[in-house]
Amino acid sequence: MKTKNSIVALGLMALMMVSAVAVSAAEYEVDASHSAVGFQVKHLTISKVKGSFGDVAGKFSFTEGKPDSWQAEATVQITSVDTGNQKRDDHLRSEDFFDVAKFPVMTFKSTRVEMKDDSEGTMYGELTMHGVTRPVEFDLEYNGSVKDPWGNERAGFSVTGKIKRKEWGLTYNAAIESGGVVIGEDVKISLEIEGIKAK
User: Are 195 and 27 in contact (CB under 8 A)?
Assistant: First the structure.
């Protein structure tokens, strides 16, 4: 005969199992052909240079309306950097900047998501670049979910934020005669992410 305590314990276990199922999130693979990772940095204090990384892979867990269960991770191949200028891109790959021979990839892994409404919030995580891992936080916008003409469930997000490159050991610079430096320290980051739900 089951005691009152054992019945209570079984009830709690059942509740925990139901809760675990309730907060589980669907898995999505990042569709690289419909996603983009971009950045922007000031040059000579008067203009802005934009660039992107063409080789990105990742996945995220997502169920609409349940941000406590959302998770994301991504890997970017640094060699795919593209600013529209081959000489500058080669310099960015060199030891002065990313040093791709030693640090070929950049990774991001989320730690939590906090939404202030149904579409906007903040994603917290850890960014690893140039051999350094630091916490970051980005503005997150949920753009919606849809079924494409081929029957795939898709979800889209926009992510924006700003980091200081020196905090990841990217310190290369030079002073200019009028004051200031050639390359700004702040780097604006923008991501457009579209994912396909795993079947």
Answer: no
Q: What is the pTM of this model?
A: 0.84
Phi, psi of 177 (to 5 degrees): -60, -35
> In this structure, what token pair is assigned to residue 139?
């503005």
As given in the structure block, the two tokens for residue 168 are 């990841």
**In this structure, are residues 88 and 42 in contact, taking their beta carbons and an 8 Å threshold?**
no
Q: Which CATH number fits domain 25-197: 3.40.630.10, 3.40.50.2300, 2.40.128.110, 1.10.510.10?
A: 2.40.128.110
- pLDDT tens-digit series, residues 37-66: 999 999 998 899 999 999 999 999 999 889
Cα separation, 190 vs 195, in Å, equals 16
> 53 has which bridge partners?
37, 81
The predicted-structure confidence for 73-96, as pLDDT tens digits, reads as follows 999 999 999 999 999 999 999 999
